[in-house]
Structures are given as C-alpha cells and as structure tokens.
Amino acid sequence: MKHDEKTQIDLEAAVFRRLLEHLRKRSDVQNIDMMNLAGFCRNCLSNWFEDAARERGLEVPREEARTMVYGMPQEEWKARFQKDAGEAQKAAFDEREKH
User: Fold this and answer.
1) Each residue's pLDDT tens digit, 20-74
2) Which of 21, 57, 83, 88 is least surrounded, with the fewest CB atoms within 10 Å of its CB?
3) Which domain holds residue 23?
4) Burial per residue of 36-56, b for 16 or more beta-carbon CB atoms within 10 angstroms, e otherwise
5) How many domains, the chain?
C-alpha cells in the first residue's frame, strides 16, 4: 500500500498517540520492566521527543516532554504508580546494561 508522505506522517503520529494512551492506561507496567524486555521506557520516549524537537530547532523542556508521555508530571506518576524494583528486576537491568 502506498501513501503520500503527509499521510504516512499522520499515520505515524496516530500510532504514537495510541502508544502513549496505552502506556497511560498500563500504569501497572513499570519502566524497569519495559527496559528489561524492550530496551526502552517512558523516559526514553520523552527523551526521543526532546531529540526530535531539538533536531528541528525547537526546545522542549524535559519536564514538558515527560508530562506529555506520562499524561501527568513524572513526579506525580512516580508517587502514584512506581513501585520499588525487586532484586531480580535490578539484576536483569544490570545484565542488560552490560550488553
């Protein structure tokens, strides 16, 4: 299926918005679990958003990017949903970081 560039960008933006919506609904999924399984987390998404803005000559404050991804200020999300990482999670993260 072929589409023009604008349609492709619109589709990609819709997918990104749906991903954010999904992650906001799945507050039970911890960032460390995402990092261990997929190699990225909510913070990575917000960093990538910042990078994309910077590449286009725009400055997006980190907290603004994090709020966009989390759907609320990151500190509020952490207070409401973040759990302490277990030893197995930490060990898996440390092992992944070695590679």
Assistant:
1) 999 999 999 999 999 999 999 999 999 999 999 999 999 999 999 999 999 999 9
2) 57
3) 5-98
4) beeeebbbebbbebbeeeeee
5) 1
